[in-house]
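Journal club prep, notes for RB
We'll compare a predicted complex against what the paper describes. Inputs for the nicotinamide-adenine-dinucleotide case:
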Amino acid sequence: MADFSNTDFRLDGKVAIVTGAGGRGNSIGRAYAVALAQAGANVVVADLNGEGAQKVADEIVTLGGKAIAAQVDITDTASVAAMGQQAETAFGGVDILVNNAALMVEIVDKPLIETDRARFDKGMAVNVWGAINCAQTIAPLIAKRGGGAIVNQVSAGAFPAQSFYGVTKIALVGATTTLATELGRQGIRVNAIAPGMTKTDAGLSLTPDDSPLVQMAASRTPIQLRDTPDALCGALLLLVSEAGRWMTGQVLNVDGGWVMR
Ligand SMILES: NC(=O)c1ccc[n+]([C@@H]2O[C@H](COP(=O)([O-])OP(=O)(O)OC[C@H]3O[C@@H](n4cnc5c(N)ncnc54)[C@H](O)[C@@H]3O)[C@@H](O)[C@H]2O)c1
């Protein structure tokens, strides 16, 4: 038995893919990619927006970290396979997958009762299939390295789901526990983070601080309702590092206590 050490949070020599890390300027994916690099990981900054991904990868390299950019469509199996190949070529394998890419602003402007089949299929394809598709393709690469971790980005908006977006995220909670069950014997832990109202460009455009929803939610949240993306990074480092080695199939709510479970 070894005593716990803070170095258990370190990720030196590990390779991490973060999807949805290059889109808007101030995003959770960017914060995750920077935090993983600062913990010592080699990071693949992946996004549909290849130019944005390159910008974040360059930023990490300027900070002294190791990163490459990958243009990827997480709904497309060949595109995800190419992303895995890029990771292997650049860094020799994959240990960590963070399924952060999603549609949010794009699917919250209509109630579920008015969501037609095309919109439903698109939302589910990106937010649920996208994460499963990445897990299917990348888990064998993680297993080849003896195991690792997958983190799915869900949302406080799934507890309870009160929108089509929330429906996609509670489905992803189900995928998280299922993948945790299926991949555990390969040494792959699968957990989820459920952020609250995070101050990203996307989040602030959706719910400005002065919106009635924010005011109402803030009044019944024990500590501050909103925080910046870096406030989520401690949870991420716990879930992907040796420090979290006994955790799988869990959802960590990081939201000031807005959702308590
Ligand atoms: N901001 C919040 O308040 C909040 C709260 C809870 C959960 N979340 C979740 O956190 C994650 C990031 O949110 P954000 O606020 O940084 O939003 P964001 O819109 O900046 O990030 C989403 C990213 O996903 C990318 N993406 C979309 N479709 C893709 C595809 N098919 N393939 C690859 N990439 C694709 C986008 O280009 C974008 O960069 C999302 O999963 C979101 O649902 C956000």
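Talking point for the session: Residues 117-144 form the longest helix (28 residues).
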